[in-house]
Amino acid sequence: MGLEKIKVLVIDDSAVVRETMSQILNSDPEIEVIGTASDPVFAVNKIQSNRPDVITLDVEMPRMDGLSFLRKVNNLANPIPVVICSSKVEGGSDNALKAMEYGAAELILKPKMGTKVFLQESKIRICDAVKAAYRSKNKRNIAGGMQGSFLKEIQPKLTADAILEKGSPRMTLETTEKIVAVGASTGGTEALAVFLKMLPIDAPGMVVVQHMPEHFTKSFAARLDSICSVSVKEAEDNDSIVRGRVLIAPGNKHTLIKRSGARYYVEVKDGPLVSRHRPSVDVLFRSASRYAGKNAVGVIMTGMGDDGAKGMKEMHDMGSWTIAQDEASCVVYGMPCEAVKAGGVDESVPLKEIAAAVLKAIGHKN
Predict the structure, then answer these.
(1) Nearest Cα residue to 39 out of 2, 14, 72, 71
(2) Of 86, 185, 219, 275, which is the active-site residue?
């Protein structure tokens, strides 16, 4: 008996794309296209009769656009991983940011012209994206029955030790300057906008890890910078952490808080996935606990999984004040929930009260 194949439903209003995508995916021995649909309305009946493991989805379609459908799919009790394949998800575009916000597992940008040739040339990337989407769901429930080679491909879940050794209390020195470390994932792009817009221009220096693909964080930071009083930029190696500035960890790079004398700065570096993410919130929080200790405030926001839970407990144990977004205001109460269960959270507050809680924790004077 062979391996159980990944069942895929292809949704695209172009008959050429549907046919080409089906040929590409079916050519992989681990993937089987079980159906196609010209729009999400037709797709609903097919999902009900034969539930796929993964959906590939265009954005611009008749009757219901792909992003609205994506949002509905990810609101299901048991959501289906979705790979967006569209010409409308340029890096940093509103569509791309919304697709990530609504929970797309992977994004593939197809050209407006020459789509069939592009898809054929991108065969390996497309198949890998489908496999990654499938694994991303099953990694959270290995006991649920991953089959054959997929189980073998799961790597050990590394901790922050892979990037930075755990510090000791004597390594933290007193200083008057306070800094803030923030971690977020699913739902975080909009939650961060709400939080950061409420900060005054002289807010403490912050470093943020938002789980986001490479090439998207620079545009995301620019978008936030345009709507906030504080300055927001994608972090670069050796950037100083100063009042009124928020540094966003670049996609596919770990970002650590470091200290030299009285100066706090960031180190941006490569490394293995930690808690299955890069950048990892656990790595950021580990560095904050080691180099800032009592001078740091930790914030963990909406997100799936447990990245940041261990790191927040370390911050808490080193004297940092730690804040979690409450369940009612989270899109996904995963990461904050795990941090609370780990015993590392000093207070849980609604999204709209996080800014005030941070300012109170650092003794900010209005």
Answers:
(1) 14
(2) 185
Distance in angstroms (rounded) separating the CA atoms of residues 26 and 30: 8
| CA of residue 60 relative to chain centroid, distance | 24
> In sequence order, which ranges of the chain are alpha helices (DSSP H)?
15-26, 40-49, 66-74, 94-101, 115-121, 123-138, 148-153, 188-197, 217-227, 281-291, 309-317, 335-341, 354-361
Report pLDDT for 61.
81
Q: How far apart are CA 246 and CA 204, in angstroms?
A: 9
Task: Tell me how far CA of residue 241 lies from CA of 59, 180, 262, 264, 291, in angstroms.
Answer: 38, 9, 11, 5, 13
Flag residues of the chain having pLDDT under 50. Answer: 1, 139-155, 169-172
Are the beta carbons of 212 and 100 closer than 8 angstroms?
Answer: yes
- Token pair of 131, please? 């496999």
The amino acid at residue 5 is K
* Cβ atoms of residues 224 and 193 within 8 Å: yes
Helix (H, G, I), strand (E, B) or coil at 89: coil
Known catalytic membership, residue 307: yes
Q: Give the count of alpha carbons within 13 A of 235, CB side only.
A: 31
Q: Which of 12, 39, 211, 348 is catalytic?
A: 211
Helix-helix angle 188-197:94-101, to 10 degrees: 110
Quote the CA–CA distance of 194 and 209 in Å, as a whole number.
16
Residues 6+ apart with CB under 8 A from 53: 6, 7, 8, 80, 81, 134, 137
**Does 211 participate in catalysis according to the annotation?**
yes
pLDDT tens for residues 98-135? 787 777 877 887 766 677 777 777 788 888 888 877 87
Confidence (pTM): 0.70
The confidence score (pLDDT) of residue 366 equals 61
Clarify whether 215 is annotated catalytic.
no
Among candidate residues 307, 316, 329, 348, the one labeled active-site is 307
Long-range contact pairs involving 349-354 (C-beta distance under 8 Å, separation at least 24) = 349/323, 349/324, 349/325, 350/325, 350/326, 351/191, 351/194, 351/195, 351/301, 351/302, 351/325, 351/326, 352/194, 352/198, 354/195, 354/198, 354/299, 354/301, 354/323, 354/325
